[in-house]
Amino acid sequence: MNSLKPNQVLVRTLYLSCDPYSRMRLSESQGGFVASFVPGEPIDSFGVGIVEASTSTKFSEGDLVTGGSFLWETRFILSENDITKVPSDTGISPANYLGVLGMPSFTAYVGFVSICHHKAGETILVSAASGAVGQMVVQLAKARGLRVIGAAGSDDKVEFVKGLGADDVFNYKTCGSLQETVKKAAPQGIDIYFDNVGGEFLDAALENMRMNGRIVACGKVSQYNATPETVYHTKNMDIVDINNITIYDFFILDHYSRPVYKAFIDEVSASFKKGDIQYKLDEIVGLENAPQALLDLFEGKNFGKRVVKVSDL
Amino acid sequence: MNSLKPNQVLVRTLYLSCDPYSRMRLSESQGGFVASFVPGEPIDSFGVGIVEASTSTKFSEGDLVTGGSFLWETRFILSENDITKVPSDTGISPANYLGVLGMPSFTAYVGFVSICHHKAGETILVSAASGAVGQMVVQLAKARGLRVIGAAGSDDKVEFVKGLGADDVFNYKTCGSLQETVKKAAPQGIDIYFDNVGGEFLDAALENMRMNGRIVACGKVSQYNATPETVYHTKNMDIVDINNITIYDFFILDHYSRPVYKAFIDEVSASFKKGDIQYKLDEIVGLENAPQALLDLFEGKNFGKRVVKVSDL
């Protein structure tokens, strides 16, 4: 307690979140939406933990808390403003506050429900469809009456995405021409492409977009390790003009203070508890394994939403 | 009159419009927003003409009319549904129904006023700023309190755009690095890029976009003559994610039936008559010169909105 300043909390880490956006923070700042990590300082991410000591009137010992600035340490001190209490009566496991109710799942919700102007009967293509964001987009889109085409990077992942209800799923590593595979899955074209990977996949999607199509530029995991020499150059930007395409990007932190956040928590936690929504966590055990757990994301080695378990509840 | 079926009109052509979108119609259909031209048939475009004969109750001999399906002929027959009467008491010359009140000017209005969520004090970059669309974007943006950076392809054009009120204008052909030139003109970055050219310029703009920036993908005139071998590949699509950029495209014909069309006509015709808006026409004389007049657009040989005069009022 002696080391706590006023309005601070000592947190013991339960789970840390591995998310592709952290890769940007490992580079020098490009003026983007998150600050770069400081060499020599611990990195941080979303996480879930237990309050072990508190000088804040808002938190007590034993509270389950979450936040976006959890240090990659077993215990750390944060300001009361950097954490949020997790309700203990929800029947949702702590790791799922990084999973089905976590930032990537909320990203799927905002991108699909608020951003892309979907209509029942439309066709949506989802890349990285078994991933932290993709698996939720697939289920939200099916629940709202869209035809869903998924892409994933192994046969196991393909089966998982089919099990989520997707109408057509292919293995993008073994399918041959991406452009032809998408065309075969959607001969009439794609209305919405939910892009979690960028690169060549974006070009293949552009070639298959219908008039007035929409692209949610959610992530570009295929490109985060690229150098100026190896970064993919998009060939088909002319199709944006020809087919009247809108490309949306959004900053998920802008949406936590909006009504959509409550809508997300209400809808998704209810559906999850009823079993109408599944959510696959990919749990790695041990803080010492966290760096590799993060790097694996950029080779598609995760299967579902990757979290690192640091200690037991 | 004998050759007219019911509800048809014989039109004598006064002016035809040269617009970059016609280039797409010279290629085989890519499923885009306009049908390809049919080899052996006359091509068509926007135009202004005089009714010489009519079996329609809506049009009489001598009416001044405009429409988007004017054949590239001296006289032609159209259905009454394909033309609109031009009010004769406006004090606006017939060619300016293809100019300041024409489709490209309306495109500027919709793209800037309705689409890009501009705010006073923001910085907008406009490529092809002396062109049919660009010259109007520059003036609309200045009138609404934005800082305007223009790019044009000759020193004469640069002077013209400065005369429209732009804060900083450069010659993109002689400026050296586009990316550096934009950075120098906007050290704090660009909030809105109004893209009339595509290609390398889009990459240079992306490198200078501020957080939450918006790109209006209005045209890609630099790419319409490109082949699959020569088409420019966009390097900086990762910045869409990093800086939370939205790229908007729109189909101008969707907007003629909306309230924004009346707002455009009211605002722009009033401002033009008062002299608060200028609009530069680039008039080529003679139907026989029309094909070259169109092709010139793809080399930036027009200066202002190019029209072809076919006959005298």
CATH superfamily of the largest domain in chain A: NAD(P)-binding Rossmann-like Domain
DSSP helical segment count of chain A = 9
Shape of chain A: globular
SSE order of chain A, one letter for each helix or strand: EHEEEEHEHEHEHEHEHEHEHE
Largest interface: A-B, 36 and 39 residues
Sheet/helix structural class of chain A: alpha/beta
CATH secondary-structure class of the largest domain in chain A: Alpha Beta
Q: What proportion of the residues of chain A is helical, as a percent range? A: 25-40%
Number of strands of chain A: 13
Protein name (chains A, B): Enoyl reductase (ER) domain-containing protein
Domain Enoyl reductase (ER) (chains A, B): 9-308
InterPro entries (chains A, B): ADH-like_C, ADH_N_2, ER, GroES-like_sf, MDR_fam, NAD(P)-bd_dom_sf
Keywords (chains A, B): Oxidoreductase
In short:
Chains A, B: Pfam families: ADH_N_2, ADH_zinc_N. The structure is a homodimer of 313-residue chains. The first copy, chain A, has 313 residues and is an alpha/beta fold.
Please characterize this protein's 3D structure.
The structure is a homodimer of 313-residue chains. Chain A folds into two domains: 122 residues, Quinone Oxidoreductase, Chain A, domain 1 (Alpha-Beta Complex); 150 residues, NAD(P)-binding Rossmann-like Domain (Rossmann fold), CATH 3.40.50.720. In chain A, strands 1, 2, 3, 4, 5, 12 and 13 form a seven-stranded mixed beta sheet that branches. Chain A has a six-stranded parallel beta sheet with strand order 8-7-6-9-10-11, sandwiched between helices. Chain A has nine helices and 13 strands. In chain A, β6, α3 and β7 form a beta-alpha-beta unit. Chain A is of the alpha/beta class and 313 residues long. In chain A, α2 packs across α3, α2 packs across α8 and α5 packs across α6. The model of chain A has no long low-confidence stretch (mean pLDDT 93). Chain A is globular and about 60 Å long.
